């Protein structure tokens, strides 16, 4: 019996016979030999990789016999499960590729967006979130961390900002949405995205009616 290690470090068994034992087998350490059988026949097929599969021996139910060939019905069902698993893995791999391409495209689009301060607007005042009520209608500047993101359509996004003194909802639109969403998609999760040291927002304070 031979054991071949592929590039992804997964062991593929090359043999004309595979052994499976529910009593003595181990799907993690097993190699499909009599000395080191697999615990499940499905793992044996998965380890071998593709058809034509070798003869699979399982625990015999006959007195005085150690091994018996797996039944055709059981083998047929296991082949179906194995094929489904392969299709699922291929689909997952394709999705990863598509997601990576989408993130790269979003990042390229974000690089084209140039965000500039409008010099015609009043100079913003640096404030903490806890003090924003006193600056209603004024232009402010706030530093903080992104606590939550929610996108609505292509041109609108709601951001919950936190700074240690409170939480504030910020509404972004148009080019700002494209830039921030591309960055978010590239980081994949809000857990990583929220660890960016500081996000700076410039805007005019408006209070919503309760």
Automatic annotation (TrEMBL):
Taxonomy, superkingdom: Eukaryota
Protein name per its UniProtKB record: Uncharacterized protein
Annotated OB domain residues: 140-179
Residues of the Asparagine--tRNA ligase N-terminal domain: 33-122
GO molecular function, one term: nucleic acid binding
Xref: SUPFAM superfamilies: Nucleic acid-binding proteins
One Pfam family, short name: tRNA_anti-codon
Organism: Callorhinchus milii
